[in-house]
C-alpha cells in the first residue's frame, strides 16, 4: 500500500520540477523565484529549490530587506513577501472592509519609505484576482498604487529585478 | 486553589481610594512582550493558515512572521520609548535571552524591567514540570538582567490552580494574569500573598488585531477612549492603565504609527506617570499601608 501511495503522490522535488517545466512551456525560460502554496515549506524546501535551479524564495517573511538562507548546497535569497499587506489574510481571514487594504498599504508604505533613508527597503503588496479583483475592492488597490507612484524615489520591480539588484549590491551571488 | 478562595469578592466602590504622589491621576504601565516560538510545535498564533486550513509542521511562514518582530519590529519600539524617555516592563520568555541575546541585551541597556513570562511561548497547562520551568526561567532572567524578576505574566496569561503557589514560592511578588480590576489587589497563596497588577487583555494588540481583527487605527482609538475615561476617574482614586504590545504585531510598519499616536495623545495630559511593574508594586504596598 505504501509503495502504491508513493507513486500516486508526487514528491516535493517532482512538484517543484514540474512547476518549472510548466512555466518554461509558457514563458520560454525557467522561473527564478518560488513561493510555497500558502508559504508552506518542509524542512527540505530551500535545499530542493536550489537544486532544481531556483534563485530566490519568498516564504520567509522576516525582514524588510532580502536575506541569504543557507542550504545544503549554495545559498538562496529570500525576498520580503508579506502576509500583512495581503488580501487573503486581510479580506478573507481578518474580514476587514475593502478600504482597509488601501489604508494599510499607505501606512505600510509611509513607514517603510521613512525607514529607507540611508538603507534601501522592499515593500511587497500581495493581491489575488478573486479577492482584490472583485468590483467592490479593485479601486482600493488602484488608489494605493496611484498614491505610491506619486513618489519619485520608488521603484516598481519584479522579484527577478530585486534579486539581480541585491546580488549586484551585496556580491552575494558571486 | 480556585480563584474565589484566593480573592474575596470586593467592589471597587467599597474600598478607600489609593492616591498617587504629586496629585497624579493615572499610571500608564507599558508592557512589551518578547517570546520564543519553537519551530517544532504549532505556532502560538497564525496570521495565515495553510491552504485548506490544515495544521502542518513545520509552520515556516508563521514562524517567520513572528521572527520579523525580533529582527525589525522591536527596534521601532526601542526608538519610540527612547524618544519618549519611557522604560517599559519587558514580559520575556526566558529563552529569549539565549535565542535573541541581541534584543534582550538592548532592553537591559535601555533599563527596561524584566518580568518573567515562562521559558517559551506555550500554555502553562502543557508544561511537564511547572515548578522547574519557573525556577529555570527566573534563574536565567536573574543572571542575564543582574536582578531577579519580581513580576510574572503567564504565557497567554495562563495559570493552573497551583501556579500562584509556585510563583510565590519562587520569590515572585506580583503577577499580571488577573485582569479583574483597575487597581492592584492582593491574593492568597499557601506560600504567602501575591499582588496582582492590572494587566490588560483589552488594550492588547493580540486580542485587538489577531483575534478581533480590528483595523490598525482602532488601536489608537481604544487606548485613547480608555485613557480619557480612566483619567477622569483618576480625579477620585488612582487608576492604572496597562498597554500590552508585541513587536511582531505593533512593530509592523503599518501599525507602529498608531502606537506612537497613543503616547503622543497621553503626553498632552498632566498628572500621568509612566511606571514599570516594580514601581507600581512598591507604590501599592506603601500606599495601602498608609491607609
What does this structure look like?
The complex is a heterodimer of chains A (174) and B (291). Chain A has 174 residues and is mainly alpha-helical. Chain A contains seven helices and four strands, in the order ααβαβββαααα. A four-stranded mixed sheet of chain A has the order 1-2-4-3. In chain A, helix 5 runs parallel beside helix 6. The longest helix of chain A has 17 residues. Chain B has 291 residues and is of the alpha/beta class. Helices cover 40% and strands 13% of the residues of chain B. Chain B contains ten helices and nine strands. In chain B, the strands form two sheets. In chain B, strands 1, 2, 3, 8 and 9 form a five-stranded parallel sheet that branches. In chain B, strands 4-5-7-6 form a four-stranded mixed sheet. In chain B, helix 2 packs parallel to helix 9 and helix 8 runs parallel beside helix 9. The longest helix of chain B is centred in the N-terminal third of the chain and has 25 residues. The interface between A and B is medium-sized, with 37 and 25 residues.
Number of helices of chain A: 7
Structural class of chain A: mainly alpha
Q: List the secondary-structure elements of chain A in sequence, H or E.
A: HHEHEEEHHHH
Give helix and strand order of chain B, one letter per element, not per position: HEHEHHEHEHEEEHHEHEH
What are the low-pLDDT stretches of chain B, counting only 5+ consecutive residues below 50?
A: none
- State the distance separating the first and last CA atoms of chain B: 29 Å
Strand content of chain A: 5-15%
Total number of beta strands of chain B = 9
Radius of gyration of CA atoms of chain A, rounded to a whole number? 18 Å
Measured as a percent range, the helix fraction of chain A is 40-55%
Binned strand content of chain B: 5-15%
Largest interface by residue count? A-B, 37 and 25 residues
Helix content of chain B: 25-40%
Amino acid at each position: 500500500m505504501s509503495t502504491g501511495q508513493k507513486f500516486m503522490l508526487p514528491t516535493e522535488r517532482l512538484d517543484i520540477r514540474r512547476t518549472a517545466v510548466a512555466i518554461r512551456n509558457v514563458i520560454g525560460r525557467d522561473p527564478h523565484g518560488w513561493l510555497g502554496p500558502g508559504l508552506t515549506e518542509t524542512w527540505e524546501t530551500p535545499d530542493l529549490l536550489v537544486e532544481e535551479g531556483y534563485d530566490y524564495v519568498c516564504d520567509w517573511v522576516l525582514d524588510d530587506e532580502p536575506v541569504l538562507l543557507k542550504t545544503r548546497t549554495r545559498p538562496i535569497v529570500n525576498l520580503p513577501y508579506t502576509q500583512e499587506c495581503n488580501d487573503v489574510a486581510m479580506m478573507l481571514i481578518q474580514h476587514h472592509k475593502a478600504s482597509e487594504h488601501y489604508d494599510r498599504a499607505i501606512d505600510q508604505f509611509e513607514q517603510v519609505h521613512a525607514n529607507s533613508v540611508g538603507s534601501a527597503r522592499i515593500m511587497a503588496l500581495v493581491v489575488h484576482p478573486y479577492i482584490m479583483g472583485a468590483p467592490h475592492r479593485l479601486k482600493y488597490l488602484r488608489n494605493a498604487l496611484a498614491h505610491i507612484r506619486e513618489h519619485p524615489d520608488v521603484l516598481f520591480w519584479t522579484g527577478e529585478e530585486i534579486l539581480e539588484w541585491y546580488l549586484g549590491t551585496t556580491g552575494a551571488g558571486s | 486553589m480556585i480563584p474565589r478562595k484566593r480573592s474575596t469578592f470586593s467592589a471597587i466602590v467599597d474600598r478607600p481610594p489609593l492616591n498617587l504622589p504629586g496629585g497624579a491621576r493615572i499610571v500608564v504601565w507599558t508592557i512589551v512582550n518578547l517570546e520564543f516560538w519553537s519551530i517544532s510545535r504549532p505556532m502560538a498564533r497564525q496570521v495565515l493558515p495553510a491552504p485548506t486550513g490544515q495544521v502542518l509542521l513545520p509552520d515556516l511562514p508563521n514562524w517567520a512572521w513572528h521572527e520579523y518582530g525580533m529582527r525589525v519590529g522591536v527596534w521601532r519600539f526601542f526608538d519610540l520609548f527612547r524618544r519618549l524617555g519611557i522604560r517599559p516592563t519587558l514580559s520575556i520568555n526566558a529563552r529569549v535571552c539565549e535565542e535573541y541575546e541581541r534584543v534582550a541585551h538592548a532592553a537591559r541597556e535601555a533599563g527596561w524591567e524584566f518580568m518573567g513570562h515562562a521559558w517559551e511561548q506555550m500554555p502553562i497547562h502543557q508544561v511537564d514540570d511547572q515548578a522547574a520551568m519557573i525556577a529555570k526561567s527566573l534563574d536565567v532572567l536573574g543572571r542575564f538582567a543582574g536582578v531577579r524578576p519580581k513580576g510574572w505574566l503567564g504565557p497567554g496569561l495562563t495559570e493552573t490552580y497551583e501556579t500562584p503557589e509556585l510563583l510565590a514560592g519562587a520569590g515572585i511578588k506580583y503577577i499580571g494574569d488577573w485582569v479583574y480590576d483597575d487597581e492592584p489587589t492582593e491574593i492568597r497563596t499557601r506560600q504567602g500573598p501575591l499582588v496582582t497588577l492590572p494587566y490588560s487583555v483589552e488594550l492588547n494588540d493580540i486580542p485587538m488585531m489577531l483575534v478581533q481583527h480590528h483595523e490598525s487605527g482602532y488601536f489608537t482609538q481604544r487606548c485613547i477612549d480608555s485613557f480619557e475615561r480612566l483619567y477622569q476617574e483618576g480625579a477620585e482614586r488612582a487608576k492604572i492603565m496597562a498597554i500590552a504590545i508585541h513587536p511582531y504585531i505593533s512593530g509592523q510598519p503599518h501599525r507602529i504609527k498608531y502606537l506612537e499616536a497613543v503616547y503622543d495623545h497621553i503626553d498632552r495630559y498632566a498628572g500621568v506617570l509612566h511606571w514599570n511593574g516594580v514601581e507600581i508594586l512598591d507604590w501599592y504596598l506603601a500606599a495601602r499601608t498608609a491607609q
